[in-house]
Amino acid sequence: MTMSKLWTPLTILLMVIIAVASIIAWSRFNASQAAEISIADGYSTPEIPGEIYIGGAVVSPGCYPLEAGDTVEALIQAAGGVTASGDGKVTTLYIGEAGDEAAPQKIDLNRAESWLLEALPGIGEERAQAITDYRSEHGPFRSINELTKVSGIGAKTLEQIEPLITVASRS
C-alpha cells in the first residue's frame, strides 16, 4: 500500500476519534446535569445556626431547626414542600445582618399537620392529635379561641401558644 492510499483511512479514523471525544466531553458538561459544589480541605465552614426561617411558596413557612449536613431539599420538605403555585426551581437564601431577625411565622391551625402542632409549647403528641381530630370532625377553626373546645386544651394552654398560632382565612 502506498502512502497516498493510507491518508484517506487515517483521516477518517482521526475524524471519528475527534467526534467521539467531542460527544463524551459535551455529555459530561451538559447544562441539564446538577452541579456539585464542594469546599476544599483547609477551608472552614461557618457555624451552623440553631434554626433557619423558610418562607415563600412552601406549605408551612416558619422557623425550622438546622443541623450540619442538612440539605436545601430536606429543609423545604420540613416546611411541607413547595406549594402548587410555587416554582421549585427558584430558591432564595437570605442571610440577615446582626440584629436583623425575621418575625416568626405563626402556625395555621387549619393547615398544620400533627407533627408541627406537637412543637408548640404544652401541646405534645396527644393534644396535637386531638387538634387534628377536632378539625376533621368539625371542619376548619373559625378563630383561635375555638381551640379551647379541643379536649385537653384550656385557657392556660391557649394563652401560652396564642402568639404562635393563627387561623388563616380561606379564599
Can you describe what's shown?
This protein has 171 residues and is mainly alpha-helical. Among the domains are: 46-103, no CATH class; 107-166, AF1531-like domain (DNA polymerase, domain 1), CATH 1.10.150.280. Helix content is 35%, strand content 7%. The chain is built from five helices and four strands, in the order αββαβαααβ. A two-stranded antiparallel ribbon has the order 1-2. The longest helix is centred in the first third of the chain and has 26 residues, at 3-28. It is rod-shaped and about 100 Å long. The chain starts with a helix and ends in a 5-residue tail after the last strand.
From the structure above, extract its key features.
171 residues; mainly alpha; DNA polymerase, domain 1; two-stranded antiparallel ribbon
Taking pLDDT < 50 over at least 5 consecutive residues as the criterion, the unreliable ranges are: 31-45
In total, how many beta strands? Answer: 4
Q: What is the arithmetic mean of pLDDT? A: 75
Q: Gyration radius, to the nearest Å?
A: 28 Å
CATH architecture of one domain: Orthogonal Bundle
Bulk shape: rod-shaped
Strand order of the largest sheet: 1-2
Roughly what percent helix? 25-40%
* Helix-strand string: HEEHEHHHE
Which percent band covers the strand fraction?
Answer: 5-15%
Q: Span from first to last CA?
A: 85 Å
Would you summarize the structure shown here?
By secondary structure, the protein is mainly α. Helices cover about 35% and strands about 5% of the residues.
Strand and helix layout:
Elements: H1 3-28, E1 51-54, E2 62-65, H2 72-78, E3 107-108, H3 114-117, H4 124-138, H5 155-161, E4 165-166
Parallel strand pairs: 3-4
Antiparallel strand pairs: 1-2
